[in-house]
Write a structure and sequence with these properties.
Layout: E1 2-3, E2 9-10, H1 15-20, E3 32-37, E4 45-50, E5 58-68, H2 70-77, E6 93-100, E7 112-115, E8 118-119, H3 125-128, E9 139-140, E10 152-156, E11 160-162, H4 169-172, H5 175-187, E12 195-199, H6 203-214, E13 218-222, H7 226-232, E14 243-248, H8 253-261, E15 263-271, H9 286-292, E16 295-298, H10 304-316, E17 325-330, H11 334-342, E18 348-352
Parallel strand pairs: 12-13, 12-14, 14-15, 15-16, 17-18
Antiparallel strand pairs: 1-2, 3-4, 5-6, 5-10, 5-18, 6-7, 7-11, 8-9
Helix pairs in contact: 5-6, 5-10
């Protein structure tokens, strides 16, 4: 074992993995791990925290890889409506089960899993309608409870999805952002051969485009950045056409104005990306919505079933993700990774504890 700067002993593999998987060998209390900790908006630290102990119906997951997204940037540097501090961020997690809480019978130690980030009550109106992401009691990993920017993370057993051997960790970690995209496309009620205008060619816009194509629709991506535009064969400005569905996957009020003006009759506008409060009040011509029977629908997060579908699409090759990884970085380089996201100098960044 290795002694940390604070005098505590850090667990070393393989001893620690063996120790925590031996029932009753140790309680984990006092064992430390490195984690990203956000205590106030605008900054974070990488410090020592206790390795959590799984309660009943929970498991301890050793994080294999976690994805970084623009929401993480927002959480750390600007805050978020659902964020409760202090917090370990990270909602895109793939790992290996290394400790079972009481009552967990459907999983075993050593299984690789994807962690669906939400927990819901299961009985409210939203849950009964299949929209548990809107549950009044929704708790999100990385927002309400500690997430995957650490060596280990706690997860309810009911939030796990076991991964097949045919799916790599790096592929499976895309399930969370892809799940959100599938939710958006479901809400848009996309049909084969419909035209889909997508504003924003970052990771979300790329996944939306590929998912739309997997659903036999025809996506058109609008992206001002030359590098991302080349990657997607996207448009600098919207083409001279109307779209059956417009999805805004970038935090730009101008993108929303363009999308509304390019909406076809009976078209659906999907509000996928939120805006800063001082820019959220966009003027909409309600007569246009009225006479052309157009619809505006919001999309936020995803349900468990979207994660199952996302993993299926990735495993079967219907949606490719491997070429989207632009950077692989250790968690200790989070500050540099956030700067890359802020400047849009990356596609998908994967972080390793």
């Amino acid at each position: 074992m290795e002694k940390g700067s604070c005098g505590w002993l850090y667990p070393q593999e393989p001893f620690f993995y063996w120790a925590i998987t031996c029932e009753g060998f140790l309680s984990l209390k006092g064992w430390l791990m490195k984690a990203v900790i956000v205590e106030e908006i605008g900054s974070f630290t990488i410090g020592d925290i206790d390795i959590p102990v799984p309660a009943t119906d929970n498991v301890l997951v050793q994080v294999n890889v976690t994805g970084l997204c623009r929401t993480d940037l927002k959480i750390i540097r600007a805050g978020h409506r659902d964020l409760v501090l202090p917090r370990v961020p990270g909602e895109e997690v793939v790992g290996t089960i290394c400790k079972l809480g009481d009552g967990v019978a459907e999983y075993s130690i050593g299984q690789r899993v994807y962690v669906y980030p939400g927990t819901s009550c299961g009985i409210c109106g939203s849950c009964r309608r299949g929209a548990e992401n809107l549950c009044k009691d929704m708790k999100i990993m990385g927002f309400h409870r500690d997430g995957g920017f650490a060596k280990y993370v706690l997860a309810p057993a009911k939030s796990l999805i076991q991964l097949p051997d045919t799916l790599t960790d790096e592929e499976a970690v895309f399930a969370e952002p892809l799940s959100c995209c599938l939710n958006a496309l479901e809400l848009a009620d996309i049909k084969p051969d419909e035209t889909i205008g997508i504003w924003g060619g970052g990771p979300a816009g790329t996944l939306l485009s590929r998912a739309a194509r997997a659903l036999e629709a025809m996506p058109f991506v609008i992206e001002p950045d030359e590098r991302r535009r080349a990657f997607l064969n996207a448009y600098l400005t919207p083409p001279e056409m109307l779209f059956d569905v417009c999805i805004v996957a970038v935090g730009s009020d101008e993108a929303y104005r363009q999308a509304i003006s390019h909406l076809n009759k009976r078209g659906r506008l999907v509000v996928f990306s939120g805006l800063a409060p001082d820019r959220a009040g966009i003027k909409v011509d309600v007569n246009q919505l009225h006479y052309y029977e157009q619809t505006i629908v919001g999309a936020y997060g995803c349900a468990y079933r979207h994660s199952e579908r996302a993993l299926e699409y990735i495993e079967t090759g219907k949606i490719a993700v491997h070429d989207m990884v632009s950077h692989r970085m250790p968690l200790v380089e989070l500050e540099r990774a956030l700067n890359l996201v802020e400047k849009r100098e990356c596609m998908k960044i994967l972080l390793y504890p």
